[in-house]
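Loading example: each entry is read as two labelled lines plus one structure line.
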Amino acid sequence: MHSSAFRDDTNGAMSRFSLVARAGAHPLHLVAPCDTCRAREFSACAPLTGEEQKRLAAIMRTLNVEPHSPIFDEADPAEYVFNITAGAVKVYKLLGDGRRQITGFLFAGDFLGLTHNEAYAYSAEALVPTKLCRFPRRRLEALLVEIPHLEQRLLVMASHELAAAQDQMVLLGRKSARERVVSFILMLSNSAIRHGRPGDLVFLPMSRSDIADYLGLTTETVSRTVTLLRKQELIELIDDKRIRLSKMSTLREIAEGF
Amino acid sequence: MVVTLTPRFLDRRTIDKAYPLVRNIVPGMTAARWTQFVRPHLVPRSPDWPRGVMTIQNAAGYILSLFAFEVRADLHESRIFHMDHIMIPNLPGRGTLWASTIGAAERLAEMNGCRAIWAEFRGGAERSDTDLLTSLERSGYAPAGVRHFKRLEVKSGRAGDGGDGVTRSA
């Protein structure tokens, strides 16, 4: 575990409270990290009552991870599970020949920590400044016994890594590079909609090289395909990390191989 | 929040989709080897003796668990439902998933007129999930019988091994 990449934000939260208290705005109102969490409504903790939320928060720490820093490595002891509350993460496996295969991208609201034999099944790395809630696995499981409806919710959230890897298998089944790239963009668009953001504006926090790795293409092919889609006015490159989908129905047709 | 988990048979179109789950349970498993293993399971030996792979999928169609099954003749129980290659990932909140997986197997066994279920754990990741074994015991399953295992030395050209470590039977 590369703990040096983390900044434990628990004390930071208290500092913010101190500032609020000094300003005299709400001197008796403690601001817990969960109260201001923008990912809460689509995270595992959404259905919890105030009391249940407090119990979950009691075993949780918030962490800030710098871009390109590891969160955990494949085969590390899986002591924690993580909920992404801001930012983006790539998960990948190291292949026998030393190559790396990106198996998914996860965003705010997604859960991290799929294990194999008590060890992490994948490596995870922050793509951009990322904020995480970290839960000790054993203590979380003990809490599930006491809060049964959290168990079902967690199952939905915790299957995100598997879902991302299954999405990849579907993408790899697409025939042409164009179909794969467009399907990938639409997948990110659907993810944005699920998280309450407009579907025509897609955030691409990953590099072209990461996209190529994920789609089983070369970086040059990904770049060429994106340029072609832009020239055809199907997408608009707002900046290096954001694209606007100009003709959604045409993009859907391309993804389906029409 | 109510989680919708639906049992669905694995078919040729969903073999690839199941692969990430299999890879999670059996690290090092290649997609080619998984496909080679699972394809014959999707074709029943005969209509009276079904076999296949059952998956448990969430509302979005993602495969969260699976098991291989076969209805076999049994001298003592007449028809027996045999399940193996049980793959349930170690996810937080997996109790619901275990219940759905076991429930799907039992419904399938009843539909096929089976009088008993064999649930086989081959070792490795499956065996290490002691919580799953506990869950099975709570559902009325008990260790039964004795199975011994011996790995045979592979002689070239005689074991049906195509060089990929997969043993094929005729």
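Residues 159-170 of chain B have pLDDT under 50 and may be disordered.
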